[in-house]
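Supplementary Methods, section 5.1.

A reviewer requested that the exact input to the structure prediction be made available. We therefore reproduce it here, unchanged from the version used in the analyses.
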Amino acid sequence: MPERSERLNHGDVDHSIIDWQPIYCSLIMIMIVFFILLIANSKQDQKEMMSARKSLEEKRPLNGANMRSPGESTKYIQEGSSVLVGASEALHQVIVSRGLTESAGLNTNRRGLRLRMTAPLLFPTGLASLRPDAYPLLLEVSRLVNQHQLGVIIEGHTDENKIQTSLYPSNWELSMARASQVRQYLMQSGGVQGQHVDAAGFSSHQPLADGDTAVNAGNRRVDIYLRARSDESR
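The structure derived from this sequence is encoded token-by-token as follows.
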């Protein structure tokens, strides 16, 4: 009996003694991973906010309250292209005097002076026939082009809503037709020579912003870039 009792005692395990070191190390590792994920998500959220802000700021020239003044709209114009400063002021006066500040705006980038017009100002829905409301502004563009020997690039854009009609099987055709219609008006009514005017359609592939219906409306637009002809090859 004593021998059996001794064997049982040697086989017993004292469960009150637990090695906490592996558990403690595991908890520390879990906390480290958690904080790494938290920091990574915070940086991603910040990037998304900056991207959304940039998209909204790009849309603002279409908004009358945010339309830039001639001085602000010429900050990218380099020396030697000061004629574009005068062009910006002349177009600004037409936009204000005609009450078009909600549908047209001026800006500049390294491509030149940009006149951005919403599609409703220029065309009926789903069509490429010019509205008379757009004539004064386009005639002023023609006058400036002829007077200062400027080059013109016209870009047509649509939103992501697909169109499929006998005239325009897709948004590509509609965006190109609208840009071509503006080009034709500058030539026929404004007397601009065709070799100085280029037109292109981009469908919905260069949106200003996505999502919100009001924001998406700004994607339906025509951009007209004016630049010195000596810069056209750059």
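The mean pLDDT is 78. These observations are discussed further in the main text.
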